[in-house]
Please model this.
Amino acid sequence: MTLMDAKEGEEYIVKEIVTEDDDLEAFLFSLGCYSGEPITVVSRVRGGCTVSIKDGRYNIDTDLAKAISI
Model:
């Protein structure tokens, strides 16, 4: 299941980042989004979603959300 399938307000654990783009993976890692970390979809927005990772909130697009396996 990817982050696009997640319910708003429910906490999930990141299983893996599924991408062949090293820059994308490094970007997500810099946000604190990596295997074993909790992540919550705060809200859905046009073209993606707002997520809570650690103490921060981030808007991520659909491509990023599809790369995050939960």
The domain at 3-69 is CATH 2.30.30.90 (SH3 type barrels.).
